[in-house]
């Protein structure tokens, strides 16, 4: 059953109304703006530096429950249109909401993980607006007394392309509220009407309102990524942004140092981290450009077009919305103690969260923040711990470099994650131990990992023996090799004497080849340099 | 009646045919919107079978009528509005389902004011319901009264509302029990004018699931019957927790005080709130009220004068809270999924479709309240109106709580200020003024959520019923029914009887 909204003429106006829910944009809107700003957006100009940007996020996370927030309909993505719609979901007169206990539990768990104060009594409100995919004409939400307030999320900002060094950041959480999701409107340019799918209508959402304490797209992405990790750890949301189970709105404003916050705009329904980052950075630049050119920022809702990589105004003729909030009369106040949902009972159910994992790693292994970020945020910590636990006293730096550089490199090439790694942690540990005992060189360990990754079933030690990859600890032999290289490259030695120290690189290359991964390359290079210096003098 | 069915004095078919005849006889009163012949036949067969097999359910074969704002599966549920003129629900309201499960036979769906907004059953797209008293029907058919006052030929006495259809259906004997809904007096008011018992139970004692809402925080399904006993039988079947309505009480109701205090009436105390001696109260109602006070005293009950100081604010408070919830509840009627949808060339946007649909399919009173409600809920007005009204509601509620704590067990008040007015008189006033008159005595019980019952006392000079109201503390419905039954026995109100044709 598909609801055909209207058979004629309605399409354009609905498009305008649709705000961020569209995956495409009418080709004519916002073109002028794009021309105006794109030229200015190439590189941030020097004079823009005194602008301060402020970003606040609102995240809608669908609660991972079998049924919807107030009805018994199933909550499943990609089901046939309107196949998961109860009488309540399509607002049939006389139906009433009945709160789903599992949704409350998930929200309490999430609230505690995000350091919020859980209100033992919270209340539901109706938020009114007319919308084809909002069947009752209002959304049941928690505006006045939400389930939880005053939390914060600690995360690390680290994108090597932007900052060499990672830094820590915190975003405060104003409130966490339970509310209903809306349905979906579907529009096709060729079709003669609009179609409505109410499968999503009434699905439970946790809306997280963050304070405006971020500064750009990078921080926003870091914040949301950390949130995603936490929700996935808790299992309270599956966080599939591409399916819309996690959606982000960003409030953006800019001001000069010492001034009050500027007028903000809201970018709606961002459904990928890339869109989040790009839209915010674009919007910051746009606002600065507008202000630098003597313009004014209007408090408005904007959408992000991933093709054009710009934000576009979604203003329509409509005046400012007044949601006419009213207490929901069909639900009693949500009294957690009466429902025997003591927040204190939930604390024990919270797993070790990423921030805690990073801190533990730093303290336990004296790792850098950067490394802990790579281990925890990349989801590599499980494998890492398995390796470290497999054999005693493994050199942690070696484990990290082989894991984070070599092993991840191999996996990445095949578009695999660490969970699909064919090398057993135990074998990985054995490889590291071979390096630790100076049985093989670092270079040989890389080769060893590579052949294990390709499916070699032998034990690392056996491979080393059978392939003759064992390290040779014989400085006499090493000296002989170096002397031989120097002798067969008289031109290079002469150049070096003349001051062209760069030639050492080419000599090193010869050395690498001659050593064939069987000598400690640190020692080999030192020997070569020493002998070269002796010749020069 | 149930006794007769059980001992074989009358078969379910005979009873049904009698009631169906009655439905035909009162057709001109316009009590029913839909008469459910076909569905009744199926229910009837099952009932007859069950009597044959000796496994009758609690009210097997008892004919009922249901106000047209309770959802009934596969039967039109119109709310007397163009908006839902062709709306056929796929489910039964809990209270309807419980009655049917207990063996009731549905006679039909009864007339009402559009979406319950009115107090005369005069604002229905199907036309007004006429009171059976003072009508040509009763003149022709009643065997009880030799002389009877009759309305002028071009006028009629109103049935009261908004559950006027249900009241007339019961008064005429076309069914034993009818469901109504009571938000500001909509069950008690027509019961009072039509000379039947109208019971509004405690908020939370009956499920609202399937009742198309007017004001969710005050709506209560109500029961209309000729006797308190019939009210009680129906109440016992439909009361109790419903997982589909979060506002229903999970524990059982309080036990009757009469049973708690070893049935000694002298231990009871009935309060007479002075605020109910209001301007406009007719001397006839006043006299009836006083007579019932005397009657209670003669029974040994202590009668004391009490005060409920915030009573007169109830209507003002209601005139804010009602439109707010109405505006919200009516938002779903947009013509997209069900109900009326406007058509026309100019409807080229969602907004214009919504606007045309709603202005064509909702009457002026409904639209007026939607407008007012949305105004009160605007951000800048919310504290000025809605919050103030909530505070006032709290004060009214506390009046009652304080009173009960002083040892008063029940209250005795008028229901309506007079006997039934003529349509021509009633219609002179606008909807708000009507509500101010009609709901003055009944509205506070809805504010406080307490049980209240309208009981017919005697006939007025115009040969129209006069009634009084009993109210009890929240969840003391059993005490209320016990005392009402007692008073009923003493009063011996003359129910009309009919010549069968």
Automatic annotation (TrEMBL), chain A:
Its EC number is 6.3.5.-. Gene3D superfamilies: 1.10.10.410. It catalyses: L-glutamyl-tRNA(Gln) + L-glutamine + ATP + H2O = L-glutaminyl-tRNA(Gln) + L-glutamate + ADP + phosphate + H(+). The keyword Secreted does not apply. It is found in: Mitochondrion. It comes from the Eukaryota. GO terms for biological process: glutaminyl-tRNAGln biosynthesis via transamidation; mitochondrial translation. GO terms for cellular component: glutamyl-tRNA(Gln) amidotransferase complex; mitochondrion. Signal peptide: none annotated. The keyword Mitochondrion applies. GO terms for molecular function: ATP binding; glutaminyl-tRNA synthase (glutamine-hydrolyzing) activity; transferase activity. Keywords: ATP-binding, Ligase, Mitochondrion, Nucleotide-binding, Protein biosynthesis, Transferase. It is an enzyme of class 6 (ligase). Belongs to the GatB/GatE family. GatB subfamily. PANTHER family: GLUTAMYL-TRNA GLN AMIDOTRANSFERASE SUBUNIT B MITOCHONDRIAL AND PROKARYOTIC PET112-RELATED, GLUTAMYL-TRNA(GLN) AMIDOTRANSFERASE SUBUNIT B, MITOCHONDRIAL. NCBIfam families: gatB, PRK05477.1-2, PRK05477.1-4. Allows the formation of correctly charged Gln-tRNA(Gln) through the transamidation of misacylated Glu-tRNA(Gln) in the mitochondria. The reaction takes place in the presence of glutamine and ATP through an activated gamma-phospho-Glu-tRNA(Gln). Subunit of the heterotrimeric GatCAB amidotransferase (AdT) complex, composed of A, B and C subunits. HAMAP family: GatB (MF_00121). This is Glutamyl-tRNA(Gln) amidotransferase subunit B, mitochondrial. It comes from Daphnia magna.
TrEMBL record, chain B:
Signal peptide: none annotated. Subunit of the heterotrimeric GatCAB amidotransferase (AdT) complex, composed of A, B and C subunits. InterPro entries: Amidase, Amidase_CS, Amidase_dom, AS_sf, GatA. The active site is at residues 67, 162, 186. It catalyses: L-glutamyl-tRNA(Gln) + L-glutamine + ATP + H2O = L-glutaminyl-tRNA(Gln) + L-glutamate + ADP + phosphate + H(+). PROSITE patterns: AMIDASES (PS00571). Keywords: ATP-binding, Ligase, Mitochondrion, Nucleotide-binding, Protein biosynthesis. This is Glutamyl-tRNA(Gln) amidotransferase subunit A, mitochondrial. Belongs to the amidase family. GatA subfamily. Its EC number is 6.3.5.7. It comes from Daphnia magna. It comes from the Eukaryota. It is found in: Mitochondrion. Allows the formation of correctly charged Gln-tRNA(Gln) through the transamidation of misacylated Glu-tRNA(Gln) in the mitochondria. The reaction takes place in the presence of glutamine and ATP through an activated gamma-phospho-Glu-tRNA(Gln). Transmembrane segments: none annotated. Pfam families: Amidase. Gene3D superfamilies: Amidase signature (AS) domain (3.90.1300.10).
